[in-house]
Amino acid sequence: MASKWFETVAVAQRRAKRRLPKSVYGALVAGAEKGLTARDNVEAFSELGFAPHVAGLPATREMATTVMGQPVSMPVLISPTGVQAVHPDGEVAVARAAAARGVAMGLSSFASKPVEEVVAANPQTFFQMYWVGSRDDMAARMERARAAGAVGLIATLDWSFSFGRDWGSPHIPEKMTLREMIRMAPEALARPSWLVEWGRTGRIPDLTVPNLPVGGAPAPTFFGAYGQWMGTPPPTWEDVAWLRSAWGGAFMLKGVTRIDDAKRAVDAGVTAISVSNHGGNNLDGTPASIRLLPDIARAVGDQVEVLLDGGIRRGGDVAKALALGARAVMIGRAYLWGLGAAGQAGVENVLDLLRSGLDSCLLGLGHSSIAELSPDDLVIPEGFTRRLGG
């Protein structure tokens, strides 16, 4: 029997593609419109090189750090992504994997599992929210997350939900009705291991979002939740400050790509910002997150924690982000491929790859700690960075 272990995230993606029904796999593929930003998020890392040493290398390397007050074993966090029903255990499997590897978990308010179950699997859970509904609705969601034990809040603002993909969008049903199950039957039968895994649970994939409703309302479907978001006027900076104040604890603003927005986030009192373009699922043509990181980190890195989200596929990418000013990185697509390929074990595999890759970089660069990483460790081509709003 072939080993379930995979040696790179790219292998995990290929296995997920072979294992998941076509439309389920397609729902995990990042990108909007032409896919320019999604490609640049990944490919930009290849433009950066390393400047290694050959002697006097450290025998041990330290990768532990803290993010928003939470100690983590390495500078990698699980980025919140919605409806992980590609696996029966979904976000709970991811939370268990993260806890097993000493990594904090970001849980989407559009997730398929309730916050109470996820926090039970990983007490280091940050609850993520979109600006959906009234302030009273959002206050109720925050109180539920707080009562469940969430240790921080992530507010995601980098989502305009651009329509259309040049390579085609997958069919995603609103509900798994009998008609939809019949429609998907040929895809599911072509992926027997996935079908058997779900069959053992006696359940069908749940496409509702249990963390969004308030006041005892039933959980809406993902598209119902999206409709609620579409019907809510976008937040102002005063709204961001209110959200941060209402939460009252560790608070991250996710989706920053401009220096002026980073400075406004500081003024709003945030604990951390995530330099992110929503994995390329926002406005296509936005530069890769790693191109934007250096100038943003220089502008506000001494006032808030700066994280990088987008394009991380290996430990070397983590090292490059830290060298350019990030305190830590957030991963999304990488762990989703692991989840799709092998469930909890697949997510653990991805985290192990990032850890070993980062350790290898520290060794080659002659550093005993991630705190020692700097631009001097990199070969940065002229014109690599993009400076927006500053």
Please describe what this structure looks like.
With 390 residues, this protein is an alpha/beta fold. The chain has helices at 9-19, 22-28, 36-43, 90-100, 115-121, 135-148, 178-189, 192-201, 222-230, 237-247, 259-267, 289-300, 315-323, 333-365; strands at 49-50, 65-67, 70-72, 76-78, 105-107, 125-129, 152-156, 251-256, 272-275, 305-309, 328-331, 378-379. Strands 4-11-10-9-8-7-6-5 form an eight-stranded parallel β-sheet. A hairpin with a 2-residue loop joins strand 2 (65-67) and strand 3 (70-72). Helix 4 (90-100) packs parallel to helix 5. The protein is globular, with a radius of gyration of 20 Å.
Question: Would you summarize the structure shown here?
Answer:
The chain is of the alpha/beta class and 390 residues long.
Question: What general outline do the C-alpha atoms trace?
Answer: globular
Question: What is the overall pLDDT average?
Answer: 94
N- to C-terminal distance? 56 Å
Quickly give the structural class: alpha/beta
Uncertain segments are none
- Into which percentage range does the β-strand content fall? 5-15%
